[in-house]
Write a structure and sequence with these properties.
Order of helices and strands: HHEEEEEEEHEHEEEHEEHEHHEHEEEH
Shape: globular
Largest sheet: 8 strands, mixed
Strand order of the largest sheet: 1-2-8-3-9-16-10-15
Radius of gyration: 24 Å
Amino acid sequence: MFFYTFVRKVEIEEITMNKELVERFLKYVSFDTQSSEENETQCPSTDKQFELAKYLKQELEGLGLQDVEMDEHAYVYATLPANTDAEVPTIGFIAHMDTSPDCSGADIKPRIIEGYDGSDIVLNEAQNIVTGVKQFPELKDHVGEDLIVTDGTTLLGADDKAGIAEIVTAMTYLQAHPEVKHGKIRVAFNPDEEIGAGAHLFDVEKFGCQWAYTMDGGEVGELEYENFNAAAAKIVVKGRNVHPGYAKNKMINACIVASEFAMEMPQNERPEKTDGYEGFYHLTSMKGTVEEASLSYIIRDHNSQMFKMRKQVLLDIAERINGRYGQGVVTVELKDQYYNMLTQLEDKPHITDIAKKAIEEACGFCTVVPIRGGTDGAQLSFKGLPCPNIFAGGLNFHGRNEFVSVQNMEKAMMTVVNICRITAENKG
């Protein structure tokens, strides 16, 4: 009888915690926190990110965390005090509040599909919006799970509100289970990750951790501590507008020149043609008139020498085109965004070893993969806070076909708990 009662108590606790996790996530995605690439002088880039930051501050205070603070740029910090007298390193967990500028994050209407059966998911019948298994074969890996999807008119926001929900729920789990010993735990939630600025004003000194983890990855069981070196490029073309009836040998059509630039770029080194460790050039926007046109690219490569070479490719193309049209017609502005965090973690294997063990305990396996992108952790690692990235459970980020598995969110939450426990057991 005692054993049965104990098992039932554990089951009830798990159900309660899982319900809390899902409800917390659904609350977070109700906030429109889309960041903007058009506002480079303000942080956060959109005022609406403050609304979720204020809510998180109040929630963390209500949960009894200490040192809860929201600064003037919407960065939220808090502390879960240690429950052991042992000397344990202070570690942290980080997630970002903003959603991608690529797809609307307003008025999100999530829906839970219980026990997904493996068929195509009709998101919006009226608009014929479907997440099909043929286009998204990763769905087959989640048969039987409970999937949270959108109504097809917005993204979901699992990137990275799933990470926030997992971290906060892990803190409540540790509060409810004092038998799980842990050191001082710091949590932080920041704006503007999706536009590459999330770590710019992150106060590493105030955070006060020896290392941290971002909960901002995708598929269950994944650990990432290699990421792209990243740069942004803006190409500006200055044309010469002349009445088209008298334009011969006089007009320089900036739109045509911009198109020539795009066609001279390596055509097989685009995102849709690469994977794994392969780098790429990604044309993110193209606009203009006869008088002036512009192209925006992002440049990515894991290898530092290849990264340097890729940037030179754009300068070489500009030089060739200027040779045809005249100096100054095409200018290239390059701006490095972040670098491969592996260089900052190679001599600190305990940080990734703890994460691997924690993930294996939660999921039964751990898959180490390179990030085909970047996280705040990459920039933070170069600011003195080593910070690998852990799965949050969502897939198909930045679009209307985004979804997250409830069961995988639970495993991510338990990964956070496991890291806290293992760090204390190993004393770092």
